[in-house]
Amino acid sequence: MLFFLCATTAAAEENVIGIMASNGCVNCHGYEGRGGAIGTIPSLQGRSKEFLRTAMQAYKHNVSHGTVMNRVMKDMDDRKIEVLADYFSGIK
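^ that's the sequence the OP posted. Answer follows.
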């Protein structure tokens, strides 16, 4: 029983970390990254972790260009990119 309690607690803590890391994303990408209200901002939920990580790194290193994403990602560290990719890829 203790194992299940610890596993559930660890999963809940990871979810909280993802939620906290994604606070700035919600402004444009909507609740849980479900997409912008007017439909021009893409959904992040359920995309593959690799896709999300690659996209964020591309904005960070100016390989891809967006209206605000380059500025948002410019100072984002790799650990936070990993947390965000993990969080949004896990939302179904």
